[in-house]
Amino acid sequence: MPVVKKLAGKQGGERVSVLSAGDISFVVTCTILVFLMTPGLALFYGGMVRKRNVLSIMMQSYAAIGLVTVIWVLFGYSLAFGPDHGHLIGSFDWVGLKGVGLAPNSDYAPTIPHLLFFLFQLMFAIITPAVISGATAERLRFPAFILFVILWSTFVYIPLAHWVWGVGGWLKNLGVMDFAGGTVVEMASGVSGLVAAMVVGKRLKLGYEGNIPHHMPNVLLGGGLLWFGWFGFNAGGAMGANGVAVLALVTTQIAGAAGMIGWGLVEWLHRRQITVFGAVSGMISALVAITPAAGFVSTGSSLLIGFIAGGVCYLAITFLKVKLGYDDALDVFGIHGIGGTWGTIATGIFADMSLNPQGKNGLMNGGGFEPVLIQLLAVFATYVFAGVMTFLVLKGIAMITPLRANDDEQVNGLDLTQHSENAYPDFELNETF
C-alpha cells in the first residue's frame, strides 16, 4: 500500500506526495547496482595495470568510496541539490543531512524517501573521481590522490551536478538533456583525466617496457560488473519503476552490445584482429555514450549510438593519443571523454518526446537544431570548467605534496612504496611488466 505524506507547499498550501513501495524497491536496487560499479571498476583497473601497481590503483577506488561518502553527507549533497543560489550552486540548508529524511522531496523524486534520493546520487559522486584515477595510474602518489578526491569533488563535481541536475541549475534551465551523467560523470571524468595525465606526466620508461594488462580475467570480471551495475546507473535515473526505466534498461543493453561490435569491426579493419581487451573497451565506450541518452532515445537509436561509440573511441585511443603524446594510462579520456561527448551530442540528435515527455524532440524527430546546440553548449561548458578547475586543483596540491612518484617508487611499484603491501607475495618481485 502506498504511504501518503502531506508536505507544506512553497506558498503555504499543501501538496500530496505518495511514497510508492514499488518505486522505493526499484531505486534501492538501482542504488546497490551503482555502488557495485566502484568495486567493479577497481577490478577492471587492477587487471589493466602492471602487477606491481595492482593494490594502489584498486585502493584509489575504495578510497573514493570513503572520502566522497563523508563529503556528500557533510556538505556535498546540500551544495549539489539544495536550494539554488544564482543558478550556479546549491545551499547549506541540508548540511549534515539536516532536513533530509524519510519524507520525499517533490522537486526530485516524489515517490521515494529523500534519503534514498541522496544515497542514489552519492553513488554517482563516488565513482566519478574513481574513474579519473585510471588516467594517472602507476605514478600518482596516494597522499596526492586523497587531496585530489576531496578538492575535485568539492570544486568540480558538486557545481557540475547542480548545473545539470539541481533545481535552478543554469544548464538544467536551458533544457540540457543528461539522463544519467554524460556531462557530470563521463565527460567531467574524461576531461579531468586528460588534464591530470598531462600535469602529472608520463610513466617511467613508457615505450620501453610493456604496458599490457597484467591480468585479463580481472579486466573481464570488472568489465562485466560494470555492465551489470550500469543497468542501475541508467535505469535509476527514472526515479521509479516505470516505462522510462524500462526504456533505459533496454537501451543500455543494446548500446553495450553494439559498442563491442563497433569497436571490433574497426579494430579488425585496422589490425586484422579482434582482441578480448578491445571487446571490453568497446562495450564500456558504448555504455558511456548511452548514459546521457538512455531514457530519451528509441531502441534503434541506442543501437546506432553504441555502434558509433565503439568505433569512435577506438580511433581516439589509437590515433589521437599518439598524436598528442599524453600518457592516459587506462584511456579515461579516450573512453569516458570521447564516449560521453558523442553520447551527449547524440541525445540532442535522437531524443524523442513520445518516449519521455520530460525530454524534448531531437534533430531527427522534428526538434530542429536547437537541442543539438544546447547539448553542444553543455559539452563546451563541461570541457572548460572541468579542465581549468582540474588544472588548478592539481597545481594547488603540488604546493602541498608531490604529485608524482619518483623513479625509485615507480620501479619498485606503488603497492610497496605507497602501501607497504604486495598483491602477489608468493611471486618474484622482479617482473617483466
Low-pLDDT stretches are 1-15
CATH class: Mainly Alpha
| SSE string | EEHHHHHHHHHHHHHH
Strand content: under 5%
Task: Give a count of the beta strands, DSSP E runs of length 2 or more.
Answer: 2
In a nutshell, what does this entry contain?
The protein is mainly α.
Architecture overview:
This protein has 433 residues and is mainly alpha-helical. The protein has one domain: Ammonium transporter AmtB like domains (Ammonium transporter fold), CATH 1.10.3430.10. 63% of the residues lie in helices and 3% in strands. It has 14 helices and 2 strands, in the order E-E-H-H-H-H-H-H-H-H-H-H-H-H-H-H. The protein has helices spanning 21-48, 54-81, 114-132, 142-165, 170-174, 182-200, 216-235, 243-271, 276-290, 299-324, 332-350, 370-398, 407-412, 414-419, and strands at 3-8, 14-19. Strands 1-2 form a two-stranded antiparallel sheet. The radius of gyration is 21 Å and the shape is globular. The relative contact order is 0.14. Residues 1-15 have low confidence and may be disordered.
